[in-house]
Amino acid sequence: MVKAIVTIDERTNRILNILKAKYGLKDKSQAIKLMAEQFEKSIMEPEPRPEFIESLKSSEKKKTVKVKNFAVR
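Above: the chain's sequence. Below: its structure in token form.
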């Protein structure tokens, strides 16, 4: 676990206190951790699951159909 001393403005401090109260957290470090987890879920791309990677590998071996024109008629 890493310890850090951070400087935050008054608004951020209020937001952390609201998160603490809303989710019943013990301290602001838990609130910061919660914010980081939510950021990760909403912004960062998740790692593909091993099953998905295996299905892609098996799809590569399957026979494909060539299409000359995708226009709908």
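DSSP finds three helices and no strands in the chain.
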